Amino acid sequence: MAIAIDPVCGMQVDTEKATFTSEHEGTVYYFCGKGCKLEFDDDPATYLDPGYEPQGM
Ligand SMILES: [Zn+2]
Fold first, then answer.
1. 43: CA distance to ligand 1 center in Å?
2. H/E element holding 13?
């Protein structure tokens, strides 16, 4: 089992069970749900910025 961090809200996501994924510049990102995926797809640069702090918890 592998855990990835949802870049939008900061939640841990089990990559084997994740339904919502997105590929951006060759890297696959995993999301807790559709809302986070849509937000990421809308503006990936915002969520990949090192200064971005996940707000979802
Ligand atoms: Zn999320």
1. 14
2. strand 12-14
